[in-house]
Amino acid sequence: MGAQGDFIRWFEELDSGDVAVVGGKNASLGEMISALGEEGVRVPGGFATTADAYRAFIEANDIEKEMRGHLDDWKGGKEPLQETGEAIRRLFRHGSFPGEISQAIREAYRQLSERYASQDAGGDGSAEADVATRSSATAEDLPEASFAGQQETFLNVTGVGDLLEACRKCYASLFTDRAITYREEQGFDHMKVALSVGVQKMVRADRACAGVMFTIDTETGFPGAVVINSSWGLGDTVVQGTVIPDEFRAFKPLLGTKDLKPIIEKTLGEKEQKEVYARGGSRDVKTVSTSESERRRFTLDDEEILQLALWAATIEDHYGRPMDIEWAKDGETGELFILQARPETVQSQKEATSLKTYSLKERGERLLGGIAIGEAIAAGEACVIESAEHMDQFAEDAILVTGMTDPDWVPIMKQASGIVTDHGGRTSHAAIVSRELSIPAVVGTEEATDTLETGQEITLSCAEGEEGYIYEGILDFESDEVDLERVPETETQVMMNIASPGAAFRWWRLPCEGIGLARMEFIVNNVIKIHPLALVRFEEVEDHATRREIERLTRAYEEKTEYFVEHLARGIAKIAAAQYPDPVIVRMSDFKTNEYADLIGGTPFEPEEANPMLGFRGASRYYSDHYREGFGLECKAIRRVRETIGLTNVKVMVPFCRTVDEAERVLDVLADYGLERGRNGLEVYMMIEIPSNIVLADRFAERFDGFSIGTNDLTQLVLGVDRDAEELSYLYDERNDAVKMMVADLIETAREGETKVGICGQAPSDYPEFAAFLVKEGIDSMSLNPDSVIEVKRRVAQQEEA
Hints:
The protein is of the alpha/beta class. The strands form six sheets. The chain has an eight-stranded parallel barrel, surrounded by five helices.
């Protein structure tokens, strides 16, 4: 080969078999360009210096002996790590490329610049491409070794002189303190590790946005989702965790399906700052504040989210494993690009046949909230460290509290029992490392370093869904691990009751056959927060403070009702995706009037009732002239989940339907809003929770596809006992013969009419004998609280064998 062939390889000439030549990162770029370009995956062009170039640099500058000497002195305790690292890095920075290598880099850079000349020349006539230089390390005796995150990347490099300097800095970064420590811990010979520099055309994300994405859910390991984090400007703010980015999730099985938009989550991040090119010099980037407009809007539109997600799935399919991918959008052309892709190394390595769960056994004062990383709990003393200069003050097994972390923090992160940060999202450095170390973290709290004090006893909980919390004091908690391979199969269909979209992802591994009760109230109460009629009839909201709060929450939406529909649809879609293609039965809203009144703007739209439990609730609201428009928003959300997002495994269920006439009126309203029973396979179920439902079960069966018994309301109405009355709690018992006779009668009637019948009440979760009774009577399905699924499934299997 000529000089360029020995020392330079163009990305399009590389594939995954060239890791020993250019390292894993650069080999992956070449693989994607050559193998996935025809499938539409765009990767910026460029070239890589080879491992031979790195070794030739060392030889030409005659620095190997000095490098070995410093490393030997460090290992022998004669020289501290900091001095060793700095001394070796200085050797690289002060070295110079021999003429042959320098010429090869210059020529390759000239050719790269010519490729992009028309794009970069602009008005100043310059034809020198702005590039990123990315370090890609490999070991000659173990070429597949991964050194991800150990070396440096330099952005916005322009001109040959600056490019050669950036390459030297990349070489030097092979000997950062963290990289030296990592190789020593992993048993690698420092002198047998080489470095390739990837020189890649910069994408003008400084004028648009950038971020990272994973082809597996980063917290739960759910394999059906692509998780995308995005923020304005260059992507370092997302990787480093200096911002709370936008977060999107797309459902992989439906990507690329015509006319579907399978986006199951969109969360607006704060995005308070961005990294952009600095004026007047190459290699310069600066951090600036974002505008109010930028903070209030998403960085990507739906089509861009779907494009990135489809590329992510394509890349995953090609490599045959979950992937961690960096991407960027060019603000000048509007095009999206993949910058690099590497294997995901945390969730994909976890044992899929076991499930470990944590739960708090007591509650304390909630001090802070943020994004939960992991699903564990940690308790101990806080150790607040605001600067890396003070890392020596960290106490082992404490909970690290800081603004943000970078790779230099890893040594003390390994000693922590938990991590709390002010800044960052799910793909920030603190989040990624905490997952790798299997310790819980709460990131993006915004004020942890101001609120918490060193020595303060706290409990960090990531076991309550997508949000993580910091509690005052040392709280008692427990953990449990289940071997999923030892859970028996059952003829009776065992399903789950779910309210939170985050919980649906958390429990996806459970061996169940769908969700028998998805409660939308959690989404309305905790995510939407606004009474639906206060959005439909906003002009009728008179209280000024309430109007301001509604305006604030809906600021990103031209129509206020879209705020409700969008959030409810995404929440339901996330629940449905976790169990796809198994059925997910969504109960339409079943708030009582006092609960509706507690929503923002709710009081003027709700009557005061002496007994809301038996008042204006469930089916009676849906066809009422007073609430019908609010119910219409729920229907629009369900229709969007099924028809736009594409999750047709969603079924709907009508609660608290008192009469056959009421059932017909509700079915008519559902049809008016596009949810006609039987259309596009839609099934409509009915809750059985009133004695009249059982007495007239044969008539209800003619109008619904299935029944689901709600034992809580049924028990109180059969026995005439308020389920919340403490004085009568000894009388409230689902195992009472009257309740069981009613349940048995319903099952018999349903089976005679070939109508599916299940139960979603608490009784089989609480009482083993009640579960056995249901099996004996021939119930089709049981829907249980997630933490009861395993034990009840075992009981059901035993009863089926009896």
